[in-house]
Amino acid sequence: MSTFNAIGIAGTGVTVYRKWLDAVADNLANVNTTTRTSENAFQARYVAARAAQDGNGAEIAGTHLGSAEGILAYEPDNPLADAEGYVRRPDIDMGNQMAQMMMAQRSYQANLAVVDRARETYTAAINLGK
């Protein structure tokens, strides 16, 4: 791998981790979304990554959705509650999502740091020729 590939490879990591952060943010934003028991619950989104097909970096392999069944919660005062007082909530573990967010954020930052270091190295190499 040459030094010039570093920005491209780290850039693929930035893209993958940004998508991961987007999915986690979406899941956290909808953790308290309620629906009628006759409807599907919000489905958590999970991002799958893999090594890039060309062998340089990473790419999104796809996204997967969580359970549409969700969790039944007793909330008789909720306007969406059924006759027994139940609503459907997404099956999202906030603690797990927060851990996922921290991992994705740190990895995103690490890839940006690689881009910065590579840019500094390129600049220094150009300045040697002056």
TrEMBL record:
Coiled coil: none annotated. Residues 84-128 form the Flagellar basal-body/hook protein C-terminal domain. Keywords: Cell projection, Cilium, Flagellum. The keyword Membrane does not apply. InterPro entries: Flagellar_basal_body_rod_CS, Flg_bb/hook_C_dom. It comes from the Bacteria. Signal peptide: none annotated. The keyword Ligase does not apply. Belongs to the flagella basal body rod proteins family. This is Flagellar basal-body rod protein FlgC. It comes from Actinoplanes flavus.
